[in-house]
Amino acid sequence: MSRSAGSRANRRGEPPPSPEPLPAPAVDSHTHLDIAVGGEDRQPTDAEVDGAVAEAVAVGVPRLVQVGVDVASSRWSAALAARRPEVLAAVALHPNEAGAGASTDGALAEIDRLAALPRVRAVGETGLDRYRTGPEGWAAQEASFRAHIDIAKRHGIALVIHDRDAHDEVLRVLEEEGAPEHTVLHCFSGDAAFARACIERGYVLSFAGTLTFGNAGRLREAAALTPMDRLLVETDAPFLTPAPLRGRPNSSRLVPHTVRALADLTGAPLDQLCDALTTNAERVFGAWG
């Protein structure tokens, strides 16, 4: 999600209470702590971020992936990962930022530099967005996506993809460029057929709070058929707060709601699912320790 994509609408109301802790550790594979804790208008203090991380740890989420969407947030993400052992970073220019002209040679060079840092373990979120960016920005988005794929492959790290209303186009670009070894469909939004296409190609599907929405029947079908070793769970905080908390600000400490929904959907014992999510995250992003 980009900074300009409506974060104020996701921060209404009081923060919801923390859920019951998970029986085994899990991972928030995609969060925006800078926005979730600080908001659009200011960077959070170290103490505020440390508090949010501690709240996640307290409910059984001791590992987070902090995701950049532009040069500034990517630098912030890399710095946080260097400071906090619970956090790894992903760095990129969001496709909506790219569609607005932000994917300059200088910006891409900075993402390339950041991608070489030891605690930066993914390039993302990059990809294609046909919902918020109009046709005039699609060529710039695709060029940026291809550049990010190249950066991920050269550094041997994962690729985290933002795909909104662009399923076929995302698959086409990945096939033309060749996907990195570890490729994640962040906030998976496709149906069962698209899930099968991604699974056949070896990609990992990351499910967010949207899985719990009342109108997400096709998404639940996709999650139900995804093999256990291809699953991740995320918040995309402060966005996509799970039901029944929609309209209130999301945070990494709420990821247990989505983990429990996924366990109910798949029939997997909750502790086994948590173990699988951790194993998958460490396979994709490497060890946190």
Summarize the structure in words:
The chain has 289 residues and is of the alpha/beta class. Helices cover 43% and strands 15% of the residues. An eight-stranded parallel sheet has the order 1-2-3-4-5-6-7-8. It is globular, with a radius of gyration of 17 Å. The N terminus is likely disordered.
Give the topology.
Blueprint: E1 27-31, H1 33-38, H2 46-58, E2 63-67, H3 71-83, E3 87-91, H4 95-99, H5 105-115, E4 120-129, H6 138-155, E5 158-164, H7 167-177, E6 183-185, H8 192-200, E7 204-207, H9 217-225, E8 231-233, H10 255-266, H11 270-285
Parallel strand pairs: 1-2, 2-3, 3-4, 4-5, 5-6, 6-7, 7-8
Q: Secondary-structure element sequence?
A: EHHEHEHHEHEHEHEHEHH
The CATH class is: Alpha Beta
The total number of structural domains is 1
What is the correct CATH architecture? Alpha-Beta Barrel
| Side-by-side strand order of the widest sheet | 1-2-3-4-5-6-7-8
List how many beta strands DSSP finds.
Answer: 8
Compute the separation of the termini in Å: 27 Å
What percentage of residues falls in helices of 4 or more residues?
40-55%
Rounded average pLDDT: 95
Shape: globular
Number of helices: 11
- CATH topology descriptor: TIM Barrel
What can be said about the biggest beta sheet? 8 strands, parallel
Return residue spans where pLDDT drops below 50 for at least 5 consecutive residues: 2-10
Determine the CATH superfamily: Metal-dependent hydrolases
Radius of gyration of CA atoms, rounded to a whole number: 17 Å
Structural class: alpha/beta
